[in-house]
Amino acid sequence: MATRIITPQLVGLDVDYGSSVEEVILNLATLVSDAGRARDASKLAAAATERERKAGTGVPGKVAIPHCRSGEVSEPTLAFARLAKPVDFSGPDGDAELVFLIAAPEGGGKAHLKILSKLARSLVKEDFLEALRQAGSKEEIVSLVAGVVEGEKKPHKAEPAAPQADNAGASAVAGAHGNSAASTAPMRIVAITACPTGIAHTYMAADALSQAAGRRDDVELTVETQGSSNDAPIKQSVIDSADAVIFATDVGVRDKERFAGKPVIESGVKRAINEPDVMLDEAIAATQNPRARKVAGVAPGEHKADDEGQGLSLGKKLQQAIMTGVSYMVPFVAAGGLLLALGFLFGGYDMANGWQHIATNYSLTNLPGNTMEIDGATITFDRSGLALYIGSVLFATGQAAMGFIVAALSGFIAYALAGRPGIAPGFVGGAVSVTVGAGFIGGLITGLIAGFIAMWIGSWKTPRWLSSLMPVVIIPLLTSLIVGLLMFLLLGAPLALAMTGLQDWLASLTGSSAVLLGIILGLMMCFDLGGPVNKAAYLFATAGLSTGDEASMQIMAAVMAAGMVPPIALSIATFMRAKLFTPAEQENGKSAWLLGLSFVSEGAIPFAAADPFRVIPAMMAGGAVTGALSMALGVGSRAPHGGIFVFFAIDPVWGYFIAIAAGVVVSALVVIALKQFWPNETIEKAAADKAAADASTGAPV
């Protein structure tokens, strides 16, 4: 480091810095300013005090660590005070005697943030705190801190403590922590720690949990810190083998879906610092509680991330990026589409001829009639008054949401490739795609271009003074400029032509060609049940929904109907021939029908994962039948999601139900036939084990 992070000038020993948190922070900020490391002490103090109001920074050991990022700070700095009069920082052990102010520059370098993190983690060590209390000079304080930040190796994983030499000792440890026997294998727990600034509490919580686990023989803990140091994520294989998860965070957990299906204990980050053993006990208890809260999402193993995040092929990177974009786009589509459907429900279908005029020119105290002048033309509506007005407002809100779908698709594709610096240029590229008429095809292209360009610019070696501007100014600016120029000058016109051609082709589909498209879409929806192929079909359907043309609505209906078939069919099959399914599948079948009715294709994933060669072909057969019938009967849907619960947006609804019923019958019969005449060894073994267990307990077989 060019300069030390703490110097004697930044240390106050046995000082009276006032009786309030604000006074102490201001005095420490003044030390930083007087040392030439901050422009304005009062502004730095204000930033740290504002952070303090969100959550007190008092930690065990009568220590406080107020911290913040501020544009006033020129370089990462530590200011320390050993107070003559302790002050209340909301710590668990009472008023703070030792106070560190951690001041980081806005967008400061990651190497310095790692040093700050090391110090924060050391504050949970009793010997370090005692040395700070006994130090006789400012130079000794500086030496202690330098020894910590330069010599400490940051642990990630706490290995379980060595077994006790005698059974009595081992039992005592197990009993103290709720384990039933010393010989029981340790529970595998994974944990995430994260605080708003990612500097101090993140790493203190990680160390507190790790140290607590290291003293026990009933826990094997792996911690991922989601802080400022960009620590490596936990390997997916470790997550998959974990028994439970701890989220000790004050912010959202990044990539939370990795932990889907795991029992979870959640709290703020300070609780992990103050009560690490209690949280570990709660995690162990959750593994034995079938009603314990679980991380929402698809069960582990269905969508595995690469363990290291490195060495992915270009094709895999592209697939992951596009899937990320689609997953973030879907909420816009679902919310916007359902609002459009509700708008039609209230205002009638002819409301679409004047929704914007009605929503902006009328109010609850000035309701519209059924006839009005719009752009020089007289328009008559079937409905009037409150129903027409509410319908128009809902429709306008839905249109606003749908207006973001291309930008969201593009923005989050770029985000998946380049991280946060890719979001803005990705959104800009998506907006430009809409402007030039390139639609969702343009959104896909601009998202990929923005992501790769942002990655490339981010790899540039820049001077230190410029590095903090790269992610927030330079990368978004240059990438947005390049993407915009490419779209307006080169790519926009041909992509718009391709989009127009696609729309014209869809509009021309009739008879056998429409049925063939329905078959293809049905097969795609049931092939991987929420995977890339399924999402591609859904994206194709939703892309044209906002246009409101008949062909797009028919495609939407076929896709939604086909996606409903697998969970319903498998649920019925488990009731018809329960012996062909494992006990776990029989249990899943009790709720799968509801997921199917709600258009949640993922409800069939547990069945497909356990027996793909029998389940997937059967589901595809039913999906193809449903897609074909839906298109043949001319069924249209104005809603992109909701299953049978948006029946009011489907016409003709009887055709919709016929198509779904036919597909369900086909899939259920085919999967039963395949399992009956092509037995699954896993099922047979499970049945034999159950019969043996019943025989051993005297239960009827």
TrEMBL record:
It holds the Pfam family PTS_EIIA_2. Residues 4-148 form the PTS EIIA type-2 domain. GO terms for molecular function: carbohydrate:proton symporter activity; kinase activity; protein-N(PI)-phosphohistidine-fructose phosphotransferase system transporter activity; protein-phosphocysteine-sugar phosphotransferase activity. Residues 189-285 form the PTS EIIB type-2 domain. The chain crosses the membrane at residues 326-346, 386-415, 427-457, 469-493, 505-531, 551-572, 615-633, 653-674. CDD domains: PTS_IIA_fru, PTS_IIB_fructose. Residues 153-172 are annotated as: Disordered. Residues 318-684 form the PTS EIIC type-2 domain. GO terms for biological process: phosphoenolpyruvate-dependent sugar phosphotransferase system. This is PTS system fructose-specific EIIABC component. It comes from Corynebacterium endometrii.
